[in-house]
From TrEMBL:
GO cellular component, one term: nucleus
Top-level taxon of the source organism: Eukaryota
The protein's name: CENPP protein
PANTHER family, alphabetized: CENTROMERE PROTEIN P (PTHR28577:SF1)
UniProt xrefs under InterPro entries: CENP-P (IPR027801)
GO biological process: CENP-A containing chromatin assembly
Gene: Cenpp
């Protein structure tokens, strides 16, 4: 009987140590995500705004193209580290194009931390004299984590409302915690 009590006690100590290590790892990840200062985030946003405002201006030389490409790659790398979202493929097809109306079909796939996802939607762009408005229609989301009923409800709601921004924000948080839960449950198996 003493031997089994010692084994249980040793297992409890081992679990406590692993919990401590996981907590430290979590803290490191939190510090890593807050590693980017407000100034860096603002600089990245301003860089994207400059690129969109510049539009399709002609580039003067290949070195300009190379430096612009390096800048865009750095911005993309920053966003992937910041959100945990990485796109692996993108397909775009123009279904209809008129003077002030464009309909495009998009198919995206990628992963966020350890969760894979696929999106398919149509983007309707309507151009008025002053502005361009975009509406997402026919949104379809396929995710790996089908066993979680809360996530399934969230995906259904997102598909119904067509709100991609909310989807990506929530996916980033959910996937981070999903990974923590997965690691914890693997320990107990």
């Amino acid at each position: 009987m003493d031997n089994s009590i010692c084994q249980v006690y040793e297992e409890i100590q081992s679990l406590e140590e692993e919990i401590k290590l996981l907590a430290e790892k979590y803290e490191d990840n939190q510090h890593e995500s807050t590693f980017f200062s407000d100034e860096e985030i603002v600089m990245s946003i301003k860089s994207f705004q400059r690129e969109f405002q510049r539009g399709s201006k002609a580039h003067e030389s290949p070195s300009d193209l190379k430096s612009e490409l390096e800048s865009l790659e750095a911005d993309l790398s920053f966003l992937m580290k910041f959100t945990g979202i990485q796109f692996t493929s993108h397909y775009k097809k123009t279904l209809e194009k008129t003077k002030n109306r464009t309909v495009q079909k998009h198919r995206l796939s990628g992963n966020c931390h350890s969760l894979s996802f696929q999106l398919e939607f149509q983007l309707l762009e309507i151009q008025n004299k002053e502005s361009v408005s975009a509406v997402i229609t026919d949104l379809s989301i396929i995710m790996e984590s089908g066993e979680d009923s809360d996530m399934s409800k969230f995906v259904s709601s997102t598909e119904e409302h067509g709100n991609l921004l909310t989807f990506f924000r929530s996916l980033s948080s959910y996937a981070e915690w999903y990974e923590h839960r997965r690691c914890t449950f693997l320990h107990f198996k």
